[in-house]
Amino acid sequence: MAKLQKLPIGIQTFEKLREGGYLYVDKTKYLVDLIDRGTVYFLSRPRRFGKSLTVSTFDALFSGKKELFKGLAAEEFFERPDYRTHPVIRLDMSLTVTDEGRDEFYESTLDIVETCAERYDLSLERTSPSRMFDKLIRELYKKHGSVVVLVDEYDKPMLDVLHSPDKVEEMRNILRNMYIRIKGKDQEIRFAFITGISKFSKVGVFSALNNLRDISMSDDYATMLGYNEEELLANFGCHIDAAASDMKISKEELISKIRDYYDGFSFDGEARLYNPFSTLCFLSDRKFSNYWFESGTPSFIARYMKDKKLTVEQFRGYEVSRDFAFAPGEIETATAASFLYQSGYLSLRPGVLNDFSLDYPNHEVLTAMSYLLVGNIFGNDMELNDAMNHFRECLVTQNAKGVQGEFNKLLSKIPYDDYAKAAANAVPRGGDAREWIYRSTMLSYVYGIGLDVEAEVHGNKGRADMVVKFRGHIWVMEFKMTKHFASAAECAAAALNQIKEKGYADAFGEAMLLGLAIDDNERQITAIDFEKKTV
Hints:
Blueprint: H1 14-19, H2 28-37, E1 40-44, H3 51-63, E2 88-92, H4 102-118, H5 129-144, E3 147-152, H6 156-160, H7 165-183, E4 189-196, E5 213-214, H8 229-247, H9 251-262, H10 276-285, H11 291-294, H12 299-307, E6 319-320, H13 336-342, E7 347-350, E8 356-359, H14 363-378, H15 381-396, H16 400-412, H17 416-425, H18 433-449, E9 452-458, E10 463-470, E11 473-481, H19 488-501, E12 511-519, E13 524-533
Helix pairs in contact: 4-5, 5-7, 8-9, 12-14, 14-18, 15-16, 17-18
């Protein structure tokens, strides 16, 4: 087998990627198009999605590193009669210090501006970030002509301290005063590109930059970052062949699995994209894992889910308007739907009644978010791991009572008032909101374990609440609330009969059929009825 081209896992520098002989999916046509069509842009994308590499590529374009673009779409850019190089100010705000107070953040921001000045042998007085930044633009313009400004991870300082509104406001004030200089330097600035995870604009940073063009949800740039399936197959075909051979499955089956795990990000509701970091990691390791989540899951997401009493299921199929993500407001007061979308944990799908609906992009994100939720509920990693192992064992040994016990252990961990708060936030697709909370919590638990599970599985006579598959064992489950029946036993029997009468298990050979009765007063499954379906 021919030697495979190196995969650029974690490489965020365009020069290193090109000189090192790494595989590169050519996105440079989008960069040239942006340069041709405007001057000041903002792009929001989730972490590990190629934002820093894009910033680095812009840097190389404007710095005249023509040799790096040989064979790429942007190669022609250097041959234009009006092409010339520009000094580049590149602010990487991920390098700021945010965990040691305002003064350290302030000093680290000065360091970043100072480093940009040193690139062009300029020495600036350390005054304030805004004044130093202003002076840097003026001095470079006088010495070299119009300037290019690239701001990477502009919002990371605020996201780092999201749990502390006072700190968010302190950092926002410092950053706003600095970023506003971009607007005031229209003559001196040839091009500006700002990127980050979020955009909130009412009174914060972006009120100072109302001249920029936001391309975050633009159809024209929906596939500028990430890989669509055509790009995946065209660029990584040899790697996919090698992985399929290693895993002893067909290429078609492997592509289907990769699609399920890592595809599904969408920024216009139509085009679907593979997560570049996770896809590269999989092709390197040749095993399915939650690479994106495990590469640095921000602790604020777990805290955010817990503080807001959010369930994993409540946003699935939730319809939103086109402007929902970037409605006026600040990051600490944003709606949960907006915050989770901008953070990359929710993705856009075509809407039925509105512009878009929301869902998790793929299996990786859904299972990771579910694990976060149950981790918040249990609190203790060892206890959670023991519970998960026992649940798997119950599925394999067809221990219905054991499944009931593990679900009840989960439900008993949830504080009483959390049920009411979660029910108030619930977005059920019809039916009882309280029942929906119990079902969605248990479904999140099974997702979090990493099992093959489907909710509301459609048949020709109705929808099964949950179908779980593990190591050849299939469980079809139906949940009902005891308040609608004379007894818990009658409730469980009705749930089991519904599975049989509506043929929820008809598509399977052998399966365990399990009816569960939920008592809202006890907040427990107080009765079950089960039956083994044979071929």
